[in-house]
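>> received
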Amino acid sequence: MQMLYDSDHFVVVQFELPPADASSGPLARGGYEIVDKHARREIFLEGLLAESFKQGVEALADTHPSEDDFDEFIGGYCTLAYSPLTMH
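>> returned
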């Protein structure tokens, strides 16, 4: 687990997990958890959606964006979040 981004509005954490079993090869599993602090919602991106998110962030980073630019990009993914954030 590695925190990648923390602003007044969002937190993005990257998760990388070992393969489920040795027969699946050396590929790691994982994704990105995005927490919308104001809406108190979270979403976990994995697979193709996680790869799309990563590529979008990398492309945005090449343009020397502001924090607001990152927040706007991340906010687009938070529209997919339906579950409210709850404490366990």
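>> The beta strands are 2-6, 10-17, 29-36, 41-46.
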